[in-house]
Amino acid sequence: MPTDADIAALLITLKLAGLTTLILLIIGTPLAWWLARTHWRGKPAVEALVALPLVLPPTVLGFYLLVLLGANGPLGEHSLAFTFTGLVIGSVFYSLPFVVQPLQGAFAAIDRGYMEAAATLRASPRDTFFSVVVPLARPGFLTATVLGFAHTVGEFGVVLMIGGNIPGSTQVLSIAIYEHVENLEYARAHWISGGLLLLSFALLLMVYGLNRRFKVVGP
Amino acid sequence: MSLEIGLRLSRGDFALAVEACLPARGVTAIFGPSGCGKTTLLRAIAGLEPQVSGRLRLGDETWQDKAHFLPPHQRPVGYVFQHAVLFPHLSVRGNLDFARRRCGDGPGPGFDEVVELAGIEHLLSRATPNLSGGERQRVALARALLTAPRLLLLDEPLAALDRQAKAELMPCLERLHENLSIPVLYVSHAIDEVARLADQLLLLADGRVEASGPLMAMLTRLDLTLAGSEEALAVIEATVSAIDRDYHLTRLAFAGGGEGRELWLPGDHLPVGRKVRLAVHARDVSLTLRPPTQSSILNIIPVCVDALSSSGPAQTLVRLRAGEIALLARVTRKSETALDLHAGQALFAQVKSVSLVE
């Protein structure tokens, strides 16, 4: 059976994933909208930056974040390393492409004609975004939310680098598993691993089931 | 009130340079071949082509000049796109409410009036993806009208429709023409639609205005591409003057027509006194110096030759006057010589076929 420490790790994981997804939706939506519409020459560079976490070893991202957020970095004594806030910042970078890419795809797929029709019906660009673009991009938002959440739940390297492994504060499920295995507590590792496997499968099943027609980026 | 247009756009190898002043009343057809810039002009008027430069005024309101560009959502236009563009996430009523909510209770036509005019009462709760082409266009028209537009822009609303759907939408456009006083710009490349709906005509060719003016005069101008086309026709406004019950024929008198200047049309369903629009194709009119006495053709009108123009190597196009109306006849050059056709000559036009367009 899972112990109190495992439950604490679960709660931290869910809180981290929920908060990260929320922040990513707030900053990822305008970013994705801009990427979907801009003809700016520098767009490929921005797209490459957003996609970096897809290919980079999480430890690389974690290392740089540790340098940036740690006590020897610009923040000095306000260091965010080994804090929950630090974890959130790391996760936002780490899961960025999983939110931005589905949204960008969904926005790009919307026929401009709908936006033009809305404009001739006296809807301002902002009004059009919320009353036409967002509803039409709903599958993209669903995919972005689920992938952003699930991917944050599954993160390991970044958390280990910048969050350490402080039970009740920065210990998330993936690290709890690692620790159980290290201590040869296979039964406890099974409980959490099996639970995460089922949760991830259920989330992905929901995405693919609800948006059959929508393209999902793979990790 | 008028719509003053002075718009320019250059995009790749396409250039638009339109200078025109159109009366802001009735239906003005923007007519021309595919690719001549009709739709681009309409989009520019709606503000949907931000690269277009120049000036645009409706009455005393400036929509665009050197210093200003009124964004599309601030221009009081209603726009019906060629493919309707209904919002797929909203029902028919949702689409109509989208327009109504944003335009408040303006001076325009009310919800019930618009829904009735478009004939879509029974569709209100339907989802838009399941509508037929004709239904979609009627909803799009109603949606555009609910913005209380001061100018209605229709971009080939019939082009994507099949025959049946066209037959549904056409009466709706005619009711619009009769009941609402909103000026309409109607883009079309089908001369029969233009003949049916338009009051004025703006002819476009290669992004430039070829000519503009009242429909009937424009159709019979021999120097324009319209009269030169295979489909060349004249439109006549006439009044039902009598019905022949025995033979099921309708007699129509046209303005300035005197004795013998009348036309017979098969059918007897129109009430006496009704004003109608008739189309007479140039290819259906032949000329004779003396009135034939033993002919199956009913419509033989005394006319006067007004002008002649060569129409290809073998044919001549003749403009004829009968009272105040103008007709076109296409004859062979051989006949032109044989009859010694010349301006001012009085003769008779035999009209093989007249069709009711309104």
Structure description:
The complex is a heterodimer of chains A (219) and B (358). Chain A is globular. In chain A, helix 1 (4-37) runs antiparallel to helix 7 (138-153), helix 2 (43-55) crosses helix 4 and helix 3 crosses helix 4 (84-108). With 219 residues, chain A is mostly helical. The two termini of chain A are 31 Å apart. Chain A has helices spanning 4-37, 43-55, 58-69, 84-108, 112-120, 125-136, 138-153, 157-163, 173-182, 186-210. Chain A is built from ten helices and no strands. Chain A has a single domain (4-210), classed as Orthogonal Bundle (MetI-like fold), CATH 1.10.3720. Chain B contains nine helices and 20 strands. With 358 residues, chain B is of the alpha+beta class. The mean pLDDT of chain B is 88. Chain B is globular. Chain B has two domains: 2-215, P-loop containing nucleotide triphosphate hydrolases (Rossmann fold), CATH 3.40.50; 233-356, RNA polymerase II/Efflux pump adaptor protein, barrel-sandwich hybrid domain (OB fold (Dihydrolipoamide Acetyltransferase, E2P), Beta Barrel), CATH 2.40.50.100. A six-stranded mixed β-sheet of chain B has the order 6-7-8-3-9-10, sandwiched between helices. A five-stranded antiparallel β-sheet of chain B has the order 13-12-11-14-20. Chain B has helices spanning 38-46, 92-103, 111-118, 133-145, 163-179, 191-197, 215-219, 225-228, 333-339; strands at 2-11, 14-23, 27-31, 53-58, 61-64, 77-80, 151-155, 184-188, 200-205, 208-214, 233-244, 249-254, 262-266, 275-281, 285-288, 299-311, 315-322, 325-332, 346-351, 355-356. The two termini of chain B are 26 Å apart. Chain A binds chain B through residues 111, 113-114, 116-125, 127-128, 131-132, 135-136, 138, and chain B through 46-48, 71-75, 77-79, 81, 83, 85, 87-89, 98-99, 102-103, 143-144, 147.
